[in-house]
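Table S4 entry, Putative lish motif-containing protein.
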Amino acid sequence: MSQSTAPLSKSRSSDKTSTEEPSRAEWLERLDKVHLHRGDLNRLIMDYLVTEGFKEAADKFRLEAGVVPPVPLDTLDERIRIRDCLQDGRVLEAVALLNGLRPELLDNDRCLLFHLRQQHLIELIRESRTEEALAYAQDHLCECGEDDPQVMSELERTLALLAFEEPQSSPFGDLLHPSQRQKVASEVNAALLEEQNPRPQLSVMLRLLLWAQEQLEQVPPGVSRTRFPKVTQLSDPFPQQ
């Protein structure tokens, strides 16, 4: 009897081990065994740099890695100028450049138009130009939210900044953070790229990673869930243990 129970005990121990989440060291060791072609990685990096409009970095990477950009780097100039305007808070200048480059874009993308107008309103509030902000909202933004509750909610959050002496410290202060400018700049950049390449391949792969994690966690009742280190922060994808 003692001999027959030993394998059973060992099997249970083995099953338990197989369902335990791998440690950071074990996971990194597995990743080290995955072979990736350097050329594929270099093309992926170049695709990201070009799509996001990092011209100087793309040109330097072209020289260092010998990777040919998917498009001539000179074609990035207009997108870069528009991005720089938005990141500097010069929204109306960015809109003028955008209309010159793609006149039909804002007519066809009302959501993007609203976000650009909203960003200009934010810049007016940042500069404490209260009367101009209210007039601009009345003339260009109020009608946008009449049939869209989400747009109205965003507009109300923006106008709520006017109620605070120090709007940066208010519950809506995130709208005045540089990341808000970057968010709008990225949205404009993505819209300009729609006809060429909707989004960087790297971004697509990261979205696929997050989708795959969700699928692995959604298992039917009674089925053991796959254990794996879940990526929650892309800047440090491997959890500390």
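The first helix runs from residue 2 to 19.
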